[in-house]
Description:
Blueprint: H1 13-21, H2 25-36, E1 45-52, H3 60-79, E2 85-92, H4 108-111, H5 133-148, E3 153-156, H6 157-163, H7 167-175, H8 177-184, H9 190-195, E4 199-201, E5 216-218, E6 223-227, E7 233-237, E8 243-245, H10 247-258, E9 262-266, H11 273-282, E10 289-293, E11 296-297, H12 314-320, H13 323-331, E12 338-339, H14 345-359, H15 364-367, H16 371-375, H17 389-399, H18 404-414, H19 424-441, H20 452-466, H21 474-486, E13 492-497, E14 503-505, H22 507-518, H23 526-533, H24 535-546
Parallel strand pairs: 1-2, 1-9, 2-3, 9-10, 11-12
Antiparallel strand pairs: 4-8, 5-6, 6-7, 13-14
Helix pairs in contact: 2-3, 3-13, 7-10, 8-11, 10-11, 13-14, 17-19, 17-23, 20-21, 20-24, 21-23
Amino acid sequence: MTTERLPELTLTPEITAAAAEAKSWPFEEARKILKRYEKTGLPETVIFETGYGPSGLPHIGTFGEVARTTMVRTAFRILTEDKVKTKLICFSDDMDGMRKIPENVPDQDALAPHLHKPLTAVPNPFDGDYKSFADHNNAMLCRFLDTFGFEYEFASATEYYKSGKFDKTLLEALRCYDKIMAVMLPTLGEERQATYSPFLPISPKTGRVLYVPMKSIDAEAGTITFDDEDGVETTLPVTGGNVKLQWKPDFGMRWAALGVDFEMFGKDHQTNAAIYDRICEILGGRAPEHFVYELFLDQLGQKISKSKGNGISIDEWLTYAPTESLALYNFQKPKTAKRLYFDVIPKAVDEYFTYLAAYQKQDWKDRLNNPVWHIHAGNPPASEMPVPFALLLNLVSASNAENPDVLWGFISRYAPGVTAETHPQLDALVTYAIRYFNDFVKPTKSFRKPDEVEQDALRAISDSLSKLPANADGTQIQNAILDVARGIERYQDHKKKSPEGGPGVSIAFFQMLYQVLIGQERGPRFGSFIALYGVDETRALIDQALNGELN
Length: 551
């Protein structure tokens, strides 16, 4: 399938000049493609590719590969002033055999008889009309990519092998059998060398992908001969979907067959990249430009696995945050390993809107290095976010709000004229904040009782708040509570300096406020929280804490 056409790009002399100097990593990668054709001139179409193994449900790493490649593609379009056609192929390795049953699928026992069959021949264990496990997972991937608005062409390995699209290159692989073996055998152990073949026949009797040695090959006839699982000698053509290639030769074959110019992959592929490249060249292709990214890790620091289902799924992230925050998380530091769990979501949301607000004030040089330019393919929307997501979470926590209308009551008082209708993005964040609080914050809330020093501090804060003008803003409120803290020895930080030259305020003061009043370890600027929640409401919260009524 192919999605709708690429978005229009705005091209002006200012943008073109800024692009020539842009330092963000998508532009650096796009320049590699330009250099690739420096001597020969650019082709009519430049091919970008991403790979996906549908052995399990798509995860955020899968999405990230498409998102990041799209960012490089957009940068390339700018650098070439959109005069060169580009295509992004999202390739599914759905002809791979199912080596093990995924842990996160229903009715695992029903899949057991289908081990080692191509994933498109394994029955669909999920509800729905999809014919196979791979069809279901491919559809999930495409559904999300379509929802996010990516422009891509989906490609199925099963369809490409069976339809003959790979036949020419497979026959070339048969002719180059010895050269491919010369590349592969040194990378294998002695026992594996004795049985290895780059061709994996699909048993005509059991339908399983066979890892068996070749008894003979016939390049002229285009066939391989092997013993089937029952020991009977069998000859099959390498064309028409009767065989597939081992995964390392398959990488190089695909690049040669499709003329791929750019593909990124995870660090776990880095040691094999030279093998992929060499096989591509043996088959008459030119190895694409690579970008190696670090892997996402789960909360325990383990690699995210489709079959285990650890980490966060695409749908889980989108339950608690907008898609743009997910794209930002993928954009940032792609060559640094990052832990991917639910705690990272609020920060990603607020960082996205911070970058978006900054974009409108930047010149083109800075805009093309701003993540939102890449997230929105060069057309970021105008946006204003009066209340950060982290502050909304604390508001939900303090007010125990289950209904968006309750939160909007606070917001409207804090920012007159701001409504759900005028700020639909903020309205969406309100709903996300309630969900996130109920699922991740509320179960871990733990209020502690203040000691005598803390009780005196809270009374002093309440008294100071009572003396503020009715229209006091977050800065005035923050200064008022800082003045209280500076007078308490426990909270004096002599490594910092106050505006008056005295000791500053230690972080322990704010930790106390959140632990005692909100039941959390940390939060955003407390003066901003009080401005949103309300001075009278905060003083009432202090009274509850002093009376031991918070739990």
